[in-house]
Amino acid sequence: MAMDVASHTSAQEAFDLLMAGNRRFVSGAVEHPHQDAARRAEVAPSQAPFAVVFGCSDSRLAAEIIFDRGLGDLFVVRTAGHVTGAEVLGSIEFGAGVLQAPLVVVLGHDSCGAIGAARAALDGGATPGGFVRDVVERVTPSVLAARAAGHDSAEAALDEHIRQTVDLLLDRSRALADRVAAGRTAVVGLGYALADGRARLVASRGLDLPADAPDA
């Protein structure tokens, strides 16, 4: 794929590239594209990733591995519980606006420690100290929203947190919202299963895609 892939790839094509790579990863038929010396030399002068991936920092959630991609393909931003701040928003705006990536992905996963800690705290457990507490507190509204809708499972909390993160990016970033409204960028939310490696669609803004319904 050429270096100017982002400017010649639509959001739908970028989404299809990601999901095709994930299917290869799940089946064990990985191709490891763009991971050789030639690619390293190709991308050294500049980058043109086809997707921004904003995911959880969990060590089991390495985007280039689970989507079977390589150097220069993905602009990756990660925080615990994929919670947002100014630096996250600025990084995503840089990837979508400056680097012209047509797709932004919010990537969550099951057995997320931040979501588990928020659920435990709401059920009367101890709240972590230090700055970990801040992470948990920023996840808590998603857990509360899932419960208010009658969904108390960990997967429902995950799906709600992914959806709320997608909406938060568009609410707080005028630049990203304008790009989505103009059809230049799409934002999707994916939930990743640690055991089988499958990524499933949870939310979509700017692409007409059917999302999975959360479990109760």
From TrEMBL:
SUPFAM superfamilies: beta-carbonic anhydrase, cab. GO terms for molecular function: carbonate dehydratase activity; zinc ion binding. Its EC number is 4.2.1.1. Keywords: Lyase, Metal-binding, Zinc. It catalyses: hydrogencarbonate + H(+) = CO2 + H2O. Binds 1 zinc ion per subunit. Zn(2+) binds at C56, D58, H109, C112. Its cofactor is Zn(2+). It comes from the Bacteria. It holds the Pfam family Pro_CA. It is an enzyme of class 4 (lyase). GO terms for biological process: carbon utilization. Gene3D superfamilies: Carbonic anhydrase. PANTHER family: CARBONIC ANHYDRASE (PTHR11002), CARBONIC ANHYDRASE 2 (PTHR11002:SF79). Belongs to the beta-class carbonic anhydrase family. Catalyzes the reversible hydration of carbon dioxide to form bicarbonate. This is carbonic anhydrase. The lineage of its organism: Bacteria, Bacillati, Actinomycetota, Actinomycetes, Kitasatosporales.
